[in-house]
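Bumping with the actual sequence this time:
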Amino acid sequence: MPTVATDSTSDWELSSSGKYWTFTRPLEKSDNDDRHYRLIKLATNDLQVLLIHDNDTDKSSAALDVHVGHLSDPDDLQGLAHFCEHLLFMGTEKYPKENDYNQYLSEHSGFSNAFTGVENTNYYFEIGHEYLEGALDRFAQFFISPLFSASCTERELKAVDSEHKKNRQQDSWRMFQLEKSLSNPNHPYCHFGTGSLETLYDDPKAKGQDIRAELLKFHDNYYSANIMKLCVLGRESLDQLTDWAVEKFKDVRNKGIEPPSFPGHPLTEKELMKQIFIKPVKDVRSLEMTFPFPDQRPLYAVQPGRYISHLIGHEGHGSILSLLKKNGWANYLQVGSIHGGIGFEFLRISIDLTEEGLKCYEDVVLCVFQYIELLRRTGVQASTFDEVRSLASLAFRFKEKYPPSQYTSRLAGLMQHGYPSQYVLSGPSLIREYDPDLINRDLGYLRPDNFRIMVASQQAPGNVEFSKRERWYDTEYEIMGFSDHLKESLRKLELNELLHLPGQNDFIPTNFETHKKDIKQPAKRPDLVMNTAKMRLWYKKDDTFWVPRANVWILFRSPLAYATPTNCVKTRLYTDILKDSLNEYAYDAEVAGLSYNIENQLEGMLLAIGGYNDKLSVLLVKVIQKMRDLQVDPERFKLLKDQLRRSYRNFSLEPPYQHALYYLSYFTQDKMWTNAEKLKELDSITAEDIQSFYPTILSHLHLEALVHGNVQQQEAEQMMTSVADVLKPRELLPSQLIGHRSLILPQGSKWVYKRQVEDPNNVNSGIEYLIQVGNVTQTSLRARLSLLAQIAQEPCFDQLRTKEQLGYLVFSGVRKQTGSMGMRFIIQSERDTIYLENRIEEFLIKLRGNIDAMSETEYQAQVQSLIFKKLEKDKNLGQEGGKYWTHIHSGYYEFDQVDNDVAQLKTISKESLLEFFDTYIDPASSKSRKISVHIQSQKTPLATGNKYKVNIESLHTCLVAQGVTRLSVDDLRAAVEKGDAGEASIQAILREMLIDESKGDEEEIEGLMSKLVAAMGMVENASQTNGSVNGTFVTVDSKKTARRLSVADGGGESSAESGQQTPVRDHSSLPEGNTVITDPVDFKSRMELSPAAVPLFEF
């Protein structure tokens, strides 16, 4: 076993204040890391906190990881840990307003998120660096005094259920749960971790359980400071960060509990030597081999699983994948150890099968074991281990920064892994010891009697029938023991002469010189260093990050590549075959930190290469030569063609919101071939077609490139000269450089395209709603649009997702395309898409009123928040280069876009933003241009409850009598009009208002609620007896949600004094003025074209 460093009591020193302990040994960190760290432990509760001072960060962040996940769910309340994660964000005693936390973050350029794993729950946020203290104070309260209010509990149950239904038709989730469900039934790994209304509402209710009480019990049992880890990153000094962490988290209770542990392994003898056949949603063919494996976390010094995975997963000559491809059995192979929980892990080998590979899946298994047998007989190779260790050291040595919230979230999680404290930053990144005995021991777990198989395919091999269904996802499957043939083949295992260990990797870099020098101010844009009729090269030497890496993008412009659906498919097949033919050669480069990709695009083809710069030009030349000299292998062509065919077909089974995005792009771009059009052409294309087609593409090109990073200008120019010399293309005509354009909707038009979800089992529908505003080059409009999107983002999520529970996926923002931009809303929901469109328009009307009601201070806070986001510095070389390439690829070359936007934002008054809204965004505007795509489920839309009448005056009188005087009749009416799910929804909204306005405790709130419910009941009783009651009524209905039309249409006020019933808007019909698109081609032919972004030759 490896020797490991451990903490001792002498490594911790009590502060002079007596409030915390400090870890005194230096933390092992990357040579490229300029941040300062301090590890402390609070004296009051043993909460361990990692503090990070980053003097250059624009954003601050914090993350807290709780060592409890869904393995700790009670057997009869599966999903409770995940539900707790959802509810924790919904108000605290100190900050009771439900969206206070997210609103604070949104107003200061921030965001938050969380996730629940098998044994941990991780919460994190990011915010403008000046506002860390306020965010920390709010964040800490989640772990001190969360409310878990009854109204939020009821509504957030729907969010959890919606999240589950979002995943139900996703094969990755279905296979994951089936693998869990078919594990040891006495081990909690078999739990259903997401949860649903069935597990968290229906079943508990039937048993008389109070889900809120169970939630409180779960939180009280497990949310203890001693099993939490906190990470805080900011610009402030370590002393200041320490003071804040101590002050704000000292009251988190330490309940002295042990981290939950789960003895045994989920795969016992009963679950092993089994083969599971699963019917996927999509047309996929895959094989998974899963082995019970030792927990690798205590073995961090040697990481035997990393060495074993490196060899089994190798893709070079002599590898498993190389042999499988030669036999025509597989396309891809992946391998890795998967952490399950404390004490148990899995090693999984996943293989993408061909049609023939599916028939021969047992032979595929045999190939894998032949290689494992090779590893056993040859023994652990010190040279291979040294290669793996040195590459890990290189990656850590030159590790770059990434977004703060990703960093804090990851570190908070790593702190739970049991590494010695000095390794909290380096943990699994470095391999510290060579222990061949330990590696051989773990290799010994890869035995024929210690694994099981999962085969996924639409038609199971042989005569297997899918006779069973998994409980939570209704997945069809069959399970049986290994065949006698497979067991016998594995028993007589022999070596295969075509399999051998990888050779020396010539791509491992040796030159890391960056020529660093003092720079007063890094350059803000790349320079144009070559500009001819055939080629344009942009170049920027890295003067910010000083790492031995570089990125190269080359756009091969060709008008032929996308001219027809046939050409589009041929270009795609050409790039797929090219990558397939280079795979064995390029895999060594990928292992050594240098990778490439080439893909077809609207303009032609895009090649991207990135990584250590030392051998980058070697890989580039090889790729370009292969582009020129490619020989299309007919057998590999057939397999890749089949792969592409399935990809086109499987798109129909993507989530509904993805289809909404796809078709909206189709209707707003001048040229876009659909998958159906491409699929129609695919069958007739042959290998000979590709062999004759690609030289035609390469014969006439315009090359545009960016070389960015640790490369001298002369090297960059040599690279591009060599590319041109190898391909020798003729130049394009200037008219052939005109790119694609947007389609512009007529002013005052409203369009709707309706389409059915193709998967009959998907309960969700999807919508994208777009309001076109103008061209992306119009800086004034662009700034106003981005500001409106900034203001709308948090209230949109709060209203449509949190309060109305329309669905788990709710998004608002800016959609940008070449030649156009607009405000977009995306929702995936069980509701009818017409209802969703009405709710989006209702939100827009409300948004206008919210902006109008903003104080100047509130408005300027939003402006400054957006400016802060736009001025945020790039975190690493890839981010900076990607930004430059976006400006080049778009054809606009607006490298100073951020400065232009910020200058515009500083001039926008609230009045001018409202004028912009009224002109371009308001659904009733004569100048607005709107299009929406409705992807409607074949299932019956979710019902939203019966009509429910509410007497506004009766409720108001009741509230005033109880001392709640701040709410007017109009306030009440506006609140009740939010309700769209009958009585329960109205009660939830009223309860929220009472919490916000009365500031009473839970008992007082419930007392008031009982009186309000009685007041609502009086209305129902009166209507049943005499059919009329004095006062103003709001009718809440799934089809007709009440709203005063005067707000939308500028009509007369419907007041309490008038004694008239509030008018309603019909949510069962599209808003007035919409035209349904029935002929997509005819529609597109009638639209105006935007100006093109023409790549000019003069700059």
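The tokens above came from a reply further down the thread. The longest strand covers residues 330-341.
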